[in-house]
Specification:
3-stranded antiparallel β-sheet; 6 strands; 3-stranded mixed β-sheet; homodimer; Arc Repressor Mutant, subunit A; DNA-binding
Chain lengths: ~170, ~170
DNA sequence: GTCAGTGCAAACTTTTTGCAACTAC
DNA sequence: GTAGTTGCAAAAAGTTTGCACTGAC
């Protein structure tokens, strides 16, 4: 069995249990969307998920249903929602361990980063009267690509100024 | 001098420097919006900021300009943007120390929390090739109020079921 | 058979953009 | 005077909602 499918199977069970407890209908759409989220393999957007389902092909679900279902999955604790400036990003939530992400303020790319050091510190962090479900650390800044891009543009600009000076 | 005004004065200077370096216009609107952000005293939204400026009265700025200016302030590193599910929240950025927030998944309230323990662990956290500007820890879960509210509703529901059973 | 859930389109909210008018330089 | 900014309104993008239809129970 594909190793990646294991957490997905667990999530599927949790979804079933969640819906049964609340007497909700176990529609094929809901399971299909969860499956597609598994195929996404990491962080994804609604658009991305729609594309995956279209390419995968076997099943068509409307955009509105995907939105509604994502909210259900969030409430059920099956996915994590990252409400970024551009569009909400999601990812499967296989455990409740603290997670860290880098977000580039220029290209808005979000990337999961592994920070075992920070994780340990955050693990036993509590807040009085607040029932913690998730700890998400967002590290904002400039990614490698954008740093390089900016350096190059600064160089170009510098050259233009030099040319201007030579012309005088 | 009002103690609270000190960081604001520093931010004003940084704004001036930022704009001068880029030959941007030091318009009264920009300084006025920064002042209003100081009056907000914590985390605020665009709507909240507009209201503050209306009540404060001396100056009127259009919504679009506030949005544009907030982006400028972000780029200048004067404010932190929290792109939440409901609407973006902002706050003045007086230093680059790691910050933590609790966000209730039910009422969407965001609150700054002091976590000296986590701060220390996050302080010396680095990512290869990534130029870190801010570290924001979001702690998702249920706030005290919503927990109480949910408990109360569960109790009410339980009573209804009991009544149903008695009727039979 | 019933009603929760879906699909579609339309509404809604937040944010961005185009353009004329303005004003800081 | 000129070009960067503002204000307004209109557009865009993302998300939510209303309603008729469908299918899970």
């Amino acid at each position: 069995m594909d190793k990646k499918q294991e957490p997905l199977a667990s999530l599927r069970e949790r979804l079933t249990r969640y819906m049964e407890e609340r007497a909700m209908r176990k529609t094929p759409e809901r399971y299909e969307i969860l499956r597609a989220a598994g195929l996404a393999n990491g962080i994804f957007t609604i658009d991305g998920l729609m594309k995956i389902m279209q390419e995968d092909g076997t099943f068509q679900v409307s955009r509105a249903t995907v939105f509604n279902t994502m909210e259900l999955f969030c409430d059920a604790g099956l996915i994590i929602k990252h409400p970024l400036a551009t569009a909400a990003h999601y990812e499967l939530r296989t455990d409740s361990a603290p997670k860290a992400y880098s977000i580039c303020r220029q290209c808005n790319t979000i990337t999961r980063v592994s920070t075992s050091t920070a994780k340990l510190a955050l693990q036993n962090l509590h807040i009085r009267y607040f029932n913690i479900e998730d700890k998400l650390l967002y590290i904002h800044g400039l990614c490698r690509k954008c740093q390089a891009k900016n350096r190059q543009e600064a160089r170009k600009k510098q050259n233009t100024i030099k040319q201007d000076n030579n012309r005088k």
